[in-house]
Amino acid sequence: MRKVLAVATAATVLSGLLTACSDPALNSGLGPADPSSPAGGTAAPSGTTGTAGATGTAGRIAWGPCTDVRGPNGQVPAKPDATLRCGSLRVPLDYAKPDGETLDIAMIRIPATDQARRIGSLVFNFGGPGASGVDTMAQAAKAFASLNTRYDLVSFDPRGVERSSGVRCDGEQVMDRYTSMNTIAVTQADWDRQERIIKDFAAACERTSGKILPYVGTVNAARDMDRMREALGEPKLNYFGISYGTQLGAVYATEFPKNVGRFVLDAPLDPSVSMNRRTVVQSAGFQHAYDDFLKDCIKGPGRCDIGADRTIANKNVEKFMGDVEDKPLKVGSRELTQGLANTGVAAALYSKLTWPLLEQGLNMAFSDDGRLLLSLADNYNGRLPDGSYTTLMSSFPAISCADTAERPDLAQLKRTQREALKVSPLFGSAGMGLICSSWPVKGSNQARKVDAAGSAPIVVIGGTGDPATPYEWAPKLTEQLGTGVLVTYKGEGHGAYISGDQCVKKVTDKYLLEGEVPAKGTTCAAS
């Protein structure tokens, strides 16, 4: 039996690993965890902020101590980190009315450690859409220590996320029902049940956060980033985007090509793909990662706890998923549904480092102990120990549905599920279209059209074993940008830089710190 981590450490480990690699829609529209502010209450009204630190005025950031930044366990440390500085920047709620109502964008900064050689600010978006950049930067800063020598590391909660008028959807009961929903509909009654749950969820989001919903989305977030660039005093924006952060970076480069400095887009999306295609490709990506996990489990030291060979292990997983679909597994006062079990499995596939957790979690679940799988799912969903939620699961559909005009009907949703199930019986589903078809705000396709002609070179890094943003999207985004330079990482996991691969780190650091653009065709074999 391989060495595994204790159940109590699951949430902490996953928080540290996954907050830096949030992804777009997986199956029913989930995104990995980002422990930050608790759910509850309403979106912050225009012109106010919930962030720690001082409140800035239009065009100015007032920096102060960070007092509400959350750690991997979802709790605010008793003693704040004195190296962190927090503040906010006031921006228009509606850019069509620049002198109208405003909202405050929460920001965080970690000053460069070598001030004598400081280059400037490096702005991060860690993904989602919907991950809190404020909390993630505080948790993930050590992974970017080499860049922090010469850059101030800066991140933010995009509009509609956490402290920046975060989208909320009533409270815990609504969120629990939504996140525990089973992912596959077989009968018409199943489809009707999913539709009721999602319509109730969407209506709750409109009740609680209706004022902000029409103004979230990637195009407005890109405009906010240019206001940040000005407020930071930077002639060009230096930027590091991961997963959804690559789409945000690509849209920024399209809107403001002359303001592009040194840009890295790691684990890229193809913003042009349809909902149908995105669901099918991502289902295949997670299936590929799951198959690699099974191979690794069987060949690992000792025996694989979930089956003597790949076929048996897979059958055991499929049987368990079928069992909890019919009869959820009791975990204290809660239940591990098929939807939550599926989420727990997917969460542990984001990094090879968490595969032992997945083996342990499945082995426990086969013996009617669902604690670890539920912990993995809670972390992925942003459910905090007290039962409250971060805004990730509510910000995610708000931004995703704002970024597309697609609103598929039931026939289209059924076709998508059939196609997805063919490539992945475990992860196939109807995808984000199920949510957007009931969303109360119309979307736009503007964020799906990318062309950075006239910008400086943009480095795009794609991983061949990335489950959430499959490699095929990397060359496609590179081509659409027009100024993109592709770097290929032949390794597992979502996000190449945070994998710890030394080749990727060297190539990226040389570009960001020294301005050395990677040669065409640069490839890094997993170390």
TrEMBL record:
Residues 29-56 are annotated as: Disordered. InterPro entries: AB_hydrolase_fold, Pept_S33_TAP-like_C, Serine_prot/Carboxylest_S33. Keywords: Hydrolase, Signal. Residues 1-20 form the signal peptide. This is Peptidase. Belongs to the peptidase S33 family. Residues 433-524 form the Peptidase S33 tripeptidyl aminopeptidase-like C-terminal domain.
